[in-house]
Structures are given as C-alpha cells and as structure tokens.
Amino acid sequence: ATEAKPYDVVVIGGGPGGYVAAIKAAQLGFKTACIDKRGPPGGTCLNVGCIPSKAMLNNSHIYHQTLHDTKERGIDVGDVKLNLPQMLAAKENSVTTLTSGIETYLFKKYGVDYLKGAAAFETANKINVALNEGGETQLDAKNVIIATGSEVTPFPGLEIDEERIVSSTGALSLKEVPKKLVVIGGGVIGLELGSVWARLGAEVTVVEFLGAIGGAGMDAEVAKTFQRSLQKQGFKFKLNTKVIGGERQGDSVKLKVDSAKGGKEEELEADVVLVAIGRRPYTTGLGLDKIGVEVDGKGRIVIDDQFNTSVPGVKCIGDATFGPMLAHKAEEEGIAAAEILKTGHGHVDYGAIPSVVYTHPEVAWVGKNEQELKADGVNFSVGKYPFAANSRAKTNQDQEGFVKFLTEKDTNTILGVHIIGPGAGELIAEGTLALSYKASAEDETLSEAVKEAALSTYDKPINF
Ligand code: FAD
Ligand code: NAI
Predict the structure, then answer these.
(1) Residue 123's beta-bridge partner residues?
(2) Which residue has the higher pLDDT, 1 or 103?
C-alpha cells in the first residue's frame, strides 16, 4: 500500500462550512485537504439549496411581475411565455459557474487539495477516502474538521421519488409546472419553493402542523402579515393540520390530512407533493462510532465552544452540529474553527445571525422576536414603521410590510429587528451590525424605514 498523505488539516465536506474552513486553514499556512463525495464542491447550498433556489426565485419573480405588474407602470408587453427548460438551464448555469469557481480558482489559488470521494474515519487521524473515480486513498490528518452537513427529514410513509413526491432537490428541477402542488411544512423551503411554482402557475396548498407559517424564529406578527400576502398571491394554507398518510397513484398523489387535534379527516390530491418538514444532520458512513464521536438524540455531533467533538483533534461545524442550518452560520464557524487551530481564538456571534426568506415580499430578521421576549419575561418596547409610509416603497408601488424594532425598555438596547417588505434581506444587515455592537435604537441612522422604526421605540416617527 502507498503511504498515507500527511496533512495539517483535513476537512470532510465541501459545503459552505467545509470549503470556507479549508480555504481559511490554507490561508493560515496549514497543509489542507478538503474531501467531498458529491463531486463539485459547494455542498447543499451551492448545488441543491441556496443558489439554485435563489435563481428560480429571482427568475420566477421577473416572469410573474412581467405578466401581472407592468401595465400601470407604463409598460405594455406582448405575449409573455414561460420557457421552463431555459429557466432551469439558467439555474444550472449559476450553480456550475459558482461550484467550478471554487474548484478551479479558489482551491488552486490558496493551495487546498480537493479530493472527490467518500471519507470515513479509520482512526481519529487516519481518513480513508473511497474515490469517485475508483480506488481508495488514505490521508494522515493532524486535525480533522467534520462539515458533512444535513439531509432532508423524510416523512414517514411517503417515499420521496423526486418526481411526484419530491424534496427541495426535486422541486428545483420539475420538468413541468404542476397544476396542483401540495407542500408539507410551511417553513422556509415550503414558502420559497411554493412561491416559485405558484408564480409559474401552480395552485399551491401548504399543510402546516403549527398554527403559523414561517418555521422557528419568525415573529408572530410578521408571520401573520406574510401569510396574508401569500394568500393574495394565491397560496392556500391549511394550518393546525397534519398529514396522516398518502401514496402516489400513477401521475397523482393522494394525501390524507387531519386537523392537528384529530376528527377532521379529508383527502387532498396533487400532481406533486413537496416534503419540507425540516432537515437533519448527515453523518452516514463517516464511521463516527468507530472512533467514538458523541452524537445527541437528534443526530447532531456534540461540540464545545471551540468546535471540539468528544474525540481530540476532531472538530465539527455547520449543519452537522447545533444551531440554525444556514450557510452563513456554517461559513462563520468554518473560519472560526480554522482560526482556533492557528491561534486558539475564534468567535461566532450566535446572537446576531440573520435569517432571510427570499419570497416577495422578503422577510428577514435578527435577534429575538416578540414571543421569545415575552417567554423570557423581558421588559421591552416595540417600534414599527410601515413601508406604506416610505416614499421610495410607495413610489416603487412595492409598499407591503413593515420594519419592527424590539428594544430593552430601560436602556433602549436593540434586542431584535424584524422586516417584511422590499429589500428586507439587504436592510437586515444594518440590524445585524447594530445587534452585534449592542447598539441602542438611537444609534440607527441609515436607511429611512429602519431609522423611523428605531425612532418609534423611544419617540414619535416623523413620516408616520
Ligand atoms: P452542506 O452544504 O450540506 O455540505 C456538506 C457536504 O458534505 C455535502 O456536499 C456532502 O456531499 C459532503 N459529505 C457528507 N458526508 C461526506 C463524506 N462522508 N465524505 C465526503 N463528503 C461528504 N441557507 C442560507 O443561509 N440561505 C439560503 O438562502 C438557503 N437556502 C436553502 C435552500 C434550500 C432548498 C436548502 C435545502 C437549504 C438552504 N439553505 C440556505 C441552508 C444551507 O444550504 C445549509 O445551511 C448549508 O449548506 C450548510 O453547510 P454545511 O457546509 O454545513 O453542509
Ligand atoms: P423549517 O424548519 O424551516 O420548516 C419546517 C416546517 O414544517 C415547520 O413550520 C414545521 O412546523 C412544519 N412541520 C414539521 N413537521 C410537520 C408535519 N409532520 N406536518 C406538517 N408540518 C410539519 O424546515 P424546511 O423548510 O424544511 O427548511 C430546512 C432548513 O433549510 C431551514 O430550517 C433553514 O435552516 C434552511 N433553509 C434556509 C433558507 C434561507 O435561509 N432562505 C431557505 C431554505 C432552507
């Protein structure tokens, strides 16, 4: 057998957590390898997540706006037709441009060795790689960073065939627009991908177990406004409803649903059912048992505040461990983990991780929401400013939504910023900065709607 290749750092997984950790480690002078069995780097996010979903969201929005929202603006358009194969090709093109950029440019520039294959622990310092092109290789690693990400949580009894019963992956590549799409789970994936197909012509029904949409973290008042807005766009919601069974019958899927409390059974028929009830850590085949890495009841790899697992020399970051399953969170952890290896210090501000839902209107937030502050017994002030009072939003005829500030009553320290409306995903950066610097509402000076909402927590707004 050939000698195992020696590395300072071996990163398992080439997603936003893994590829960023590998580049940072290499920049810090470590001899670094990154392994991914998918082939192209970029993980879930670039290949079947953030990037393709944002491509479809952007282009479906342009299509929908061109169909329905041009006349009053003084734009007469002729026949507007959907060319779905081209829209899917544009999406694929965005994906490959970005993934090949990592592989052929960034990894080469910073000297990361990229291996395409499935990694498994032989020991804590020896990684076996079953190469995609055939054969095996072994790496010797002083330090290992696990960044193997997550996978779709399956729905018991509904087998995903990525054709009629799909996960987000199948929903990003449907060959035709379904007449009826039923989404199980009214969280981020359900609402983003539901929006894509609703805009392209599908009748979308969302079945959500809880009494509100948006998944964890969304402020209840924002969720209500969001739901009303999506209903205006044609979404149907079945809240407090559970799916109790279903099966594919030829080209359609029959689902049995019931109210969460029971006693209101009914049947739904759909051309396509999207299962979007969350994601779970993915560590299959990694050999965690073999070296004794501790995993919790939800399958998350247990780490301390320096990303150390229970096995010395092995760290874990991103979706495979605790915290929100977001690309920028995984990236921040990747950088911090590499810095800790070099200097012993590295930090992620878990209190200031923004969330964005890229629908129309956009929804974004950072920090605590109202229901969380109430549950924690915090004495807080609320400042709200509607986009309907904002000249630019009005002029653009895009005035749905509001900015909402939550501050600590005595000190006016910002505790949470919640935005639904135009540009929410960009505006939230200001809130994130404010939160990480523990700013008070008086410090807010930038964009107008944000400033007025901040002002409203301790004084009267000017334009509303
Ligand atoms: P991943 O990106 O999952 O990467 C892990 C990689 O490890 C995979 O490529 C896998 O092939 C590889 N791997 C696993 N096991 C092995 C092994 N044994 N050997 C070799 N390789 C292995 N987040 C956002 O912040 N913004 C968004 O807009 C957003 N949109 C999303 C849309 C969708 C449809 C989905 C599904 C997710 C979205 N996310 C978004 C979440 C985001 O994709 C994840 O949080 C992020 O990808 C996590 O990064 P990661 O590096 O931890 O894991
Ligand atoms: P999610 O956790 O956001 O939402 C799942 C929803 O399904 C919740 O509302 C939950 O109450 C509901 N649910 C759970 N079990 C159910 C059942 N049996 N029947 C009906 N409803 C049920 O998960 P989702 O949407 O699958 O997304 C997974 C993760 O991917 C997100 O948590 C997020 O971290 C990430 N993501 C981020 C995006 C972004 O940042 N823009 C976009 C897409 C995904």
Answers:
(1) 126
(2) 103
Cβ of residue 13 lying under 6 Å from some atom of ligand 1: yes
| Residue stretches of the annotated binding site for NAD(+) | 185-192, 208, 278
Q: How far is the CA of 149 from the centre of ligand 1 (A)?
A: 5
**Placement of tokens 């990163």 in the chain:** 11
Starting from the CA of residue 237, give the closest ligand: 2
- pLDDT of 1 above 60: no
Pick from 296, 298, 460: nearest CA to 385: 460
Give the pairing of strands 266-270 and 414-421: unpaired
With cut-offs at 50, 70 and 90, classify the pLDDT of residue 416: very high
ipTM of the complex: 0.99
d(CA 401, CA 196): 20
Q: Does the beta carbon of 217 lie inside 6 Å of ligand 1? A: no
Indicate the residue type of 101: G
Q: How many whole angstroms from 334 Cα to the centroid of ligand 1?
A: 13
**Which of 34, 50, 136 for a ligand 1 pocket mutation test, highest count of atoms within 8 Å of Cβ?**
50
Which of 213, 237, 277 has the most ligand 2 atoms within 8 A of CB, as the residue to mutate?
277
Query: DSSP readout, 289-327?
Result: HHHT--B-TTSPBP--TT-B-SSTTEEE-GGGSSS---H
Q: Is the CB of 326 under 6 A from ligand 1?
A: yes
Confidence (pLDDT) at 451? 84
pLDDT tops 80 at residue 445: no
Token pair 């398992």 in the structure block, residue: 12
Mean of pLDDT values over 298-316? 98
Cα distance from N-terminal residue to C-terminal residue, the chain: 75
In this model, does residue 446 exceed pLDDT 60?
no
**CA-based nearest residue to 137, from 156, 118, 154, 123:** 118
Predicted confidence at residue 442, as pLDDT, reads 81
- What is the overall mean pLDDT for the chain? 96
CA distance 113 to 123: 21
Alpha-carbon distance of 333 to 15, in angstroms, equals 12
Residue range 239-257, pLDDT digits in tens = 999 999 999 999 999 999 9
Rounded CA gap, 8 and 341, in Å? Answer: 10
| DSSP state for residue 105 in the 8-state scheme | I
